[in-house]
Specification:
two-stranded antiparallel sheet; 6 helices; 2 strands; 96 residues; 67% helix; mainly alpha; 434 Repressor (Amino-terminal Domain)
């Protein structure tokens, strides 16, 4: 099963910004608390859970996908994800 990779703090920062505890996000996504904690810790999420995770974190699914691509660009090319995230998000929406 393909997994989406995020920076280690992306999910946690978003959750905290919304004022949620990990157990609340886990419940909204429909996974066990330990599963969600592993996602936050490792930054790897099964792709099939992206729609539910996006809804739980009140963020468009494309925003999650943009973060994934930005992390890959940073790992492969050394360009900080903060510099590419917005551009990638616009490309995914078709608003380049």
């Amino acid at each position: 099963m393909p997994k989406i990779k995020f920076s280690s703090n992306f999910l946690q920062e978003r959750r905290i910004r919304l004022g949620f505890e990990p157990c609340e996000v886990a419940r909204l996504v429909g996974v066990k608390l330990d599963t969600y904690r592993q996602w936050e810790c490792r930054g790897e999420i099964p792709e099939k859970h992206l729609p539910q995770l996006a809804a739980a974190l009140q963020i468009p699914e494309n925003e999650l996908k943009a973060e994934k691509v930005a992390v890959l660009v940073e790992a492969m090319l050394g360009i900080p994800r903060q510099e590419t995230h917005g551009f990638i998000n616009r490309m995914l929406r078709g608003n380049a």
